[in-house]
Design goal:
By secondary structure, this protein is mainly α. It is built from four helices and no strands. Helix 2 packs across helix 3. The termini are close together. The protein has a single domain, classed as Orthogonal Bundle (434 Repressor (Amino-terminal Domain)), CATH 1.10.260. The longest helix is centred in the N-terminal third of the chain and has 16 residues.
Length: 80
């Protein structure tokens, strides 16, 4: 099960990916991971998630701050 903060990061990355019309395959290439990994991350049924190194690479790829993928404040209840 993904925590609320993990899901927030996943949703923020997916939103940015879709806004810029970037495929899962292109994003996977950028992160040097398999195409299936991005699909697994974006699937609520799978446990895969981004780590801090991924977030850093995503920020470089999207030319933004890593903070754009993080919530503005903390979550009280972490489990979804």
């Amino acid at each position: 099960m993904k925590t609320k903060i993990e899901q927030h990061v996943i949703d923020a990355v997916k939103k940015k990916r879709l806004e810029q019309n970037i495929s899962q395959a292109t994003l996977a290439f950028c992160l040097n991971v398999s195409k299936g990994f991005i699909g697994d991350v974006e699937s609520p049924k799978m446990r895969a998630k981004y780590n801090l190194n991924h977030i850093n690479e995503l920020a470089k790829f999207f030319n933004c701050s890593p903070r754009e993928f993080l919530p503005e404040s903390f979550f009280d209840e972490d489990a979804l």
